[in-house]
Amino acid sequence: MKKITKTNDIKTNTPIRVYKKGYGYSLLTLIENNDLFLICKSPDDFFNHIQENETVECYIWPYPDGSYDFTTTVLGKISSPFPILLLQHTDSIIYNPSRQCLKAKVTIPFTFFTFSINTNKSFSSEDIQWHKGTILELTDREAVLHTATKLEHFVKGHLHLDTKDVDITAKVTGINSTHYDISFVGLDDTDRIAILDYIFTVYRE
Questions:
Q1: 41, 65, 139, 149: which has the fewest C-beta neighbours closer than 10 Å?
Q2: Across the strands, what pairs with 76?
Q3: Regarding the domain delimited by 104-202, which CATH topology (the fold level of the hierarchy) does it fall under?
Q4: What is the pLDDT of residues 97-147, one digit of tens each?
């Protein structure tokens, strides 16, 4: 992505993640960028919550990392043919090398198997015993897993996020009764972004 120094530089179809205190996070899509304002397609619930002249914090995430952060004002709302927000231009954009780490409370069924640090890395289907649990908290780097299964050093399983499945390998970093802190290992950028996008759709205050 070309360096962004002002909002006029943002290309159409760019996802713009927004935060509004009292609501949480949402994901807009820039459908037109003209000299007057940014024209963004909005989810219905965020469109109904936000009002004209309110400010929002915005984040643009270039691939594969980093974040362009800025604050802007909602100049107008258009409800037809779909929810549209008009955002004010600004040249006060800050680049951060790391992205804000969001933690969402979720209830995601998680099917997994567990293995120790000394286990042979090659698994056959006959060797694997699958277990069930629930992800209760989620970030793009770690999660809280609730399960009655006694975990070993690592877990491996499938995380279903709406229409996408993410293969997860995670290290157990903490235990509190049936709640386990797990830290993702070797998660690629595509899957990390998919998790962050999911968190933006469910994070509410």
A1: 65
A2: 86
A3: Thrombin, subunit H (2.40.10)
A4: 877 767 888 999 999 999 887 655 555 555 788 999 999 999 888 999 999
Half-sphere exposure of 65 (CA within 13 A, CB side): 8
Q: Where are the domains of the chain?
A: 7-96, 104-202
Is 192 within 8 Å of 163 (Cβ atoms)?
Answer: no
Beta bridge partners of 105: 137
* DSSP H or E run through 201: helix 189-202
- pLDDT tens-digit profile of 59-108? 998 877 788 999 999 999 999 899 999 999 999 999 998 777 678 889 99
The CATH number of the structural domain formed by 7-96 is: 2.30.110.10
Q: Which of 66, 75, 91 is nearest to 10 (CA)?
A: 91
Q: What is the pLDDT of residues 135-155, one digit of tens each?
A: 999 988 899 999 999 988 899
Q: Which residues contact 155 (CB under 8 A, 6 or more apart)?
A: 112, 113, 114, 115, 145, 168, 169, 170, 172, 180, 182
